[in-house]
Amino acid sequence: MPNLEHPAYPSATLLHLESLVPCRESQVSMLLSIFGERQQFSFPSIFIYGHTSSGKTYVMQTLLNTLQLPHVFVNCVEYFTSRLLLEEILIQLQSCSSETKQTSHVPCDTFNDFVRLFKQAVVSRELQDQTLYIVLDRAEQLREMEANILPAFLRLQELTDRNVTVVLLSEIVWELFRPNTGCFEPFTLYFPDYSIGHLQKILSQNHPPEYSVDFYAAYINILLGVFYMVCRDLKELQHLAALNFSKYCEPVVRGEASERDTRKLWKNIEPHLKKAMQTVYLREISSSQWERLQCDDREPGQLKGLSAHTHVELPYYSKFLLIAAYLASYNPVRTDKRFFLKHHGKIRKTNFMKKHEKISNLDDEMGTTRDGSS
Amino acid sequence: MKNHFLSGLLQTNDKVALKEITRQLHLENVVGDKVFGSFAENLAFLLEALRKGDRTSSCPVLFILDEFDLFVHHKNQTLLYNLFDISQSAQTPVTVIGLTCRQDILELLEKRVKSRFSHRQIYLMNSFDFKQYIRIFKEQLSLPAEFPDESFAQKWNNNVQHLSEDKTVQDMLQNLFHYTKDLRSLHLLLMLAVSNVAVHHPLITASDLHEASKHYRMDSKANIVHGLSVLEICLIIAMKHLNDVYEGEPFNFQMVYNEFQKFIQRKAHCMYNFEKPVVMKAFEHLLQLELVKPIERPSVRTQREYLLMKLLLDNNQIMDALQAYPNCPTDVKQWAASSLSWL
Amino acid sequence: MNTRQQSKIIYSWYGKPMSSDRKLRTFQYKGILIKSERSRTETCIQVGEFILVEGENADQPFVAQLLDLYEDGAQQKHAVVQWFSHITEIPQNKRKLLKREVSPQEVFFDQVSGYDTDIAVETIIKSVMVIPLHLGEELPIPLNKEQTFYVKQSWDGKCFKALSPDTFSKLKEANKKGGGIPYSSNSFLPSDIISPLKKERERVVQSATKPKNVELEIESKHSASKSSLAKERHSQRMANGIKTPTARKKLQLNSPTRSPKGRIPGCEVLELLDDDWDTVAPLEPSATKRKVKFTGILGSPPKIPCTNDKSKSTFDTAEHWKRFSDTIRLSPYSKVKDSSEKAKNLNMKDDTISLIGHQELGSCSPVLTPRSRRICAQKTSARITEQISILNTLELNQEEDFLSSSDSSYSSSSEEEENDVLCTPEKKTKSSRMFSTPKSSRKSSVHTPAKTLKKTPLPGTPKTPRNATPEIPRRNHEALKPASILEEARLRLHVSAIPESLPCREEEFQDIYNFVESKLIDGTGGCMYISGVPGTGKTATVHEVIRCLQQAAENDDLPSFQFVEINGMKLTDPHQAYVQILELLTGQKVTATHAATLLAKLFNAPGPKRKTTVLIVDELDLLWTRKQNVMYNLFDWPTQKHSKLIILAIANTMDLPERIMMNRVASRLGLTRMSFQPYTYKQLQQIISSRLNSMKAFEEDAIQLVSRKVAALSGDARRCLDICRRATEICEFASQNRTPEIVRMAHVTEAIDEMFSSPYINAIRNASLHEQIFLKAILAEFRRAGVEEATVQQVYRQHVVLCRIEGMRSPTVSEILAICSRLGACRLLLVESSNKYLHMRVRLNISQDDVMYALKDE
């Protein structure tokens, strides 16, 4: 694989960086070459898309931090209105600039003001000669804001004529962003999903100390063999691995089998994994519950899924809370008063009845579609 | 000669625009970069200022309105009206230049505003043929004469010359030229290629250019599909079939699920029968990736299972993606390829 | 103090109705009782007495003689009066007709026709004395100035005449009779007889100009002085009209720019001073009171040694000296007082200026003496000159110039003031503003055309910083003079170039002129609706009309009027109209709601002796609000009996009233309408040729081509001129190198093509190959589906097919979408929002034939 190298940065940092981002060397080197040296202008805007947990955010963060490039990192879901977003960016600018210690909150509700304040902020800092990176995570949220925000960010370099590059991270392809009135096309970069080999490598990295590497690797191998079909989400896989590992090494603990004979281990783990298969993604039950479940698998063939086990006995009032939450999640806000208040003024008989039977049959379905309310 | 630069992206309404103009004019109601006074006051003030001047005494002002089409949408087009009106009356000499990509801009002007607009229009078309395109390509890449290191500049420019004559490069450029004529995309391409240049790799090569162009050619959705899990792929195939059956009518999760079930029962060997919630989760993931899109926003009435959806993929996109899909089970491939015969 | 304002004043008839008219059902009375609850005084005013009537601004009530009192059918108490004009009511340019300094105490027997003499009784303030004098004689030193006025001459709006003997005698005996009633006037005196000490203290408080305690004083001290009394009543009205105005607001209200105080600038102080020198009457009612108090403390004149020896040299008799010193001492204080009464932050500046005036007195008084002597000399020959005054105004102007030059040597500000004494009657707001910011005003006053003068906003509005003057930086290079004939032509053809006359709009001009003129003459209100498509010269014509009317008013063929213009497009919000109108009328800046009430009061109240107001409302349709209250008010005011308001409403659409106005508004708008037809090609031709009058820059048929073309399209004069200008440019460009020629057909046609050719075809031809294929695909899809609309997916399939035919690799979906959005951005296509991806619908923005045509030949 391409060893990272770049004139601008010491090779030590680059090595360190490489160790931090396994299986993403090519992307990183690509980014490095695009960014160029600190003072070089880069693309005005870069659009990075890729699957969930394909390391977009992580790579950007580690890259910018380890190379100590001046940057602002904002998640557009946290700051979901333009005002919040712009102000947050300005605040981070102030904070990462050296001389201004106190971060005074500046009101900024239009992009016009933003550009003005931005210029001031950048001038005030010592790094006019460095590219400033503004990373907007979950950029799809930008589409919900005013129409001018996204195009303006795309050509921020031109509008402020400062050395700034805007990086947009999203899971959604650029075509779905493009505003109607035409805009400055960003440079799009794709973060491909991890291949099975990559997953193997990454997952094997965090093996528990008490077991040998290849033992854990074998476990991961089995795990992937089962789950790769269903899910390639790194996070989910990590969760599953952590969940089932104890079960996997039970025989070893009991001393029935050595770390070598994989057949026995497989026999042991297989049913559990099958069970687990039915709960991929749905965190219906906590890990502890899962443990309990693993223990009491005396009676055979209860393959009707874990939903059965999740009918835990709730306290009286919390049941009502649950129902209320369910209703709230399925009914418009304006009807809340009607449902959840005792005296909510008079309502016409007919639709009162309608509501009632609606509620009742919703209650019936509750068991199955619970996750709707979560 | 003072000039102002306003961009429709920044000055989103007349209030902001007025403040900005006043700021750039350094009128006397500006202190620091704060503009005092209400909207009404500002307008009165600015108009007054411009009215005071006349051709002989006050210095002419040039207004450049970028993204002109956005200014058109301001309330009553007050700003435009006044600017045009001033430019057409014996007041401060004013020139207004509007930049826009819209050909139909004149229809957007209100008629009294339109009447005040001196119908002076300059169209910038990139009306060059491929030869000129190549020349532009060369000019963009080649180093200027005053580059400090002549010898290197020499080498570089020769290299560029060779590139421009290289057949493959020309084909590549031809493709791009056919695809779009605008020079910005050419710049993106070249910039990407040039960014590979380093000490150990001093000259830009044809392969660099090809890499760059390949990077541009790839279909983003295909990329996304490529990253899906088999289960999700199956769902998409199910949707594809639904689309074929009901030629493009919207579907809901339940239908997709049934389709999937059929597939499982008939000819799934390697595929495992998943719980409905799991499938639902997979479906929601597709939703989140906007490969599937609800045609009406998730309303309060219908439950999630019965929301009507549309698939945002084309059949050949799916098939292409499947070709490239890593270790895809064969029966799934067959299922995807199969027409409605097995129904 | 509010309670005080609310204190009612009761009007009741004095005695039984003398005569009654059956038909008109009116009862006549011989007197009226005015009972004020606060100062439990009761005054009886009888027919024949002289009275003060409150005007539209409180500082300056009108003087009149009560001729008749009657009560009409509706139990409304009316009074018929004979007006007297104060010198300040006489237009500036007329004042020079009587060649003598006039004391504020002097009034003129008013014979101007314009003013209606039937007023509501409620506007009567109190009774005064008006003593007729013969021209020659000096004004005697009066006992109490607030009560007494002198009349020497009559004023009929054109010139001053001596009082005819019978009027003189009538006035005399009226005086005897009126003055006879003892308690009527004395009832107000006591407050006047206060120990000098107290007065002194007050004066000190006064000169410390804190708005609020000044305000208190205005209430407390002047209970006798006419101005303040009027003021209370004024504020009273306000208080009823609006919810309890704050002190500031009130002050603001009381300082409209028409007030004499607001108007007296430094140099006028000098004039007043030296008219004090020959007439004893002091310059201000407020000042006179101080004169009284000074006579109390005259023993110790601390500040005047420097002046008194000079004045000794000039005047010998001690009595003269006394008066003079008084007046000297007076000037600063009076100024301070004005400023404090005037709005807000102006006082410091006023102070300094008045101080200038003060110090100068010493030096200037000798200089002044010759001038005043000359004036005395002229006074003797006043009569003759009066007869021929209209003829030799010119010569007088020169004299005025001379005066101004002499004055300008004294104080910088006075020079400003003088040189626009010469220009227009509207300078009052201006000069007063100059005192607020001398430096800025100098700049602003340089190149300001007279008609925009009144539009200048008062600086020092609460928000904008104090001395902010709207001004564009000067240019550092001089504007080039047109070199060639073509450039000259281009200049003349620019829309901004003001033509000498407006050709082809004669009859419209005439109609509007007649309308306004008639309304002006019989002093009523009314409104006219003017419509017409853009560029048909509506606004230009109306402005022309106003210009002519103002001309006429200047040389007295018409009663003078006030001209106000608002433009709907220049308002940020319909309600701002009130604010602007009020500001232009009176120069006060208030909030919209407040302005509305003030205007309503101004127009609805039976304001006696108010100039007619001509209001132009341009772009009327933009004043539309959901409740339409703005329009309603605008058109309601003219229908009021007393509002002398003429409205000229201009808009684009002919049937605006029917379309957007609700009935009550439309009905008030009335039926006097006029629509400007689009210009015919003959008219356009005429316009062009009149603009480049006899300048050989255009071929005849070139002009004709342009005008025909435009007339066929819109009949928009602006367009026409634009084309011509463009043609000239093209011509210039063509004939740079060769000898400059004149504009020919070729140039014009080129210009026309430039302006009217649609860009689409060209755009398509210059599109990239795939974009063109995409368009073809759209056409194919349309043909297949038979609908003028398709989704990108369908088009994409067509596109792929086409590409196969062409034998080239088909683009990916991403590329297709990029292409689509590019075409959409330049609006060759109409596309939905892009987040529908393949399902967004596409439509052509031009006819299929055009696309076909564009794609055909290549």
Automatic annotation (TrEMBL), chain A:
Q: Name one GO cellular component term.
A: nuclear origin of replication recognition complex
Q: Which stretches make up the Orc1-like AAA ATPase domain?
A: 21-167
Query: In terms of domain of life, where is this protein from?
Result: Eukaryota
Gene3D superfamilies noted in UniProt:
P-loop containing nucleotide triphosphate hydrolases (3.40.50.300)
What the entry lists under InterPro entries is as follows: AAA_16, ORC5, ORC5_C, ORC5_lid, P-loop_NTPase
Domain Origin recognition complex subunit 5 C-terminal intervals: 314-354
- Which keywords appear in this protein's UniProt record, sorted alphabetically? ATP-binding, DNA replication, Nucleotide-binding, Nucleus
Q: Where in the cell is it found?
A: Nucleus
Instruction: Provide the ORC5 lid domain boundaries.
Output: 216-283
Molecular function GO terms recorded: ATP binding; DNA replication origin binding
Residues in the signal sequence: none
Positions of transmembrane segments: none
Kindly state the subunit structure of this protein.
Component of ORC, a complex composed of at least 6 subunits: ORC1, ORC2, ORC3, ORC4, ORC5 and ORC6. ORC is regulated in a cell-cycle dependent manner. It is sequentially assembled at the exit from anaphase of mitosis and disassembled as cells enter S phase.
Q: Which family does it belong to?
A: Belongs to the ORC5 family.
* Protein name according to UniProt: Origin recognition complex subunit 5
TrEMBL record, chain B:
What biological processes does GO assign it? DNA replication initiation
Question: Where is it predominantly found?
Answer: nucleus
Q: Which UniProt keywords apply?
A: DNA replication, DNA-binding, Nucleus
One protein family per Pfam: ORC4_C
Q: Domain Origin recognition complex subunit 4 C-terminal, which positions?
A: 136-322
Gene Ontology terms: cellular component: nuclear origin of replication recognition complex
Annotated compartments: Nucleus
Q: Which GO terms describe its molecular function?
A: DNA replication origin binding
Family assignment from sequence similarity: Belongs to the ORC4 family.
Q: What is this protein called?
A: Origin recognition complex subunit 4
Gene source species: Mycteria americana (Wood stork)
Automatic annotation (TrEMBL), chain C:
Domain BAH residues, every copy:
43-166
Q: Which top-rank group of organisms is this from?
A: Eukaryota
One of the protein's GO biological processes: DNA replication initiation
Low complexity compositional bias, start-end? 403-413, 448-465
> Which region ranges are annotated with the description Disordered?
402-477
Q: How does it assemble?
A: ORC is composed of six subunits.
This chain's protein is named Origin recognition complex subunit 1
User: What organism is the protein native to?
Assistant: Mycteria americana (Wood stork)
The organism's lineage? Eukaryota, Metazoa, Chordata, Craniata, Vertebrata
